[in-house]
Amino acid sequence: MFLARSAPLYGVHGTLYGRDESGVKVIAQPDTPLPYGHPNLGTFLASQLVRRLQSFRVVGLDELINDLATAS
């Protein structure tokens, strides 16, 4: 298990759309997330938000339960 201390939003998973003479169509479905600020976000239909774990530690279930009990 991971105990995250920082997990800011990074970008989105989804589908990139574009136009041609026949209308709107799917251009790509990238395997990697599209980061916020990318120029294609305006024509991207997002299906999932993506967070980036920047500060975390690996913990066992017992340790996590103890940490949660002492935090409350």
Characterization of the model:
The chain has 72 residues and is an alpha+beta fold. It has one domain. It has one helix at 61-71; strands spanning 2-6, 9-20, 23-28, 34-35, 44-51, 55-58. The two termini are 20 Å apart.
In short:
The protein is α+β, with helices and mostly antiparallel strands and 72 residues long.
Task: Summarize the helices and strands and which ones pair or pack.
Blueprint: E1 2-6, E2 9-20, E3 23-28, E4 34-35, E5 44-51, E6 55-58, H1 61-71
Antiparallel strand pairs: 1-6, 2-3, 2-4, 2-5
Can you give keywords for this protein?
1 helix; about 15% helix; 6 strands; rod-shaped; 4-stranded antiparallel sheet; about 70 residues; alpha+beta
Assembly of the depicted chains: single chain
Order of helices and strands: EEEEEEH
Mean pLDDT across all amino acids: 92
SS class: alpha+beta
Spatial shape: rod-shaped
Proportion of residues in helical segments:
10-25%
Main β-sheet description: 4 strands, antiparallel
Secondary structure tally, helices: 1
Runs in which pLDDT lies below 50 for 5 or more consecutive residues are none
Rg, rounded, reads: 19 Å
- How widely separated are the two ends? 20 Å
Number of domains: 1
Number of strand segments: 6
Strand content: over 45%
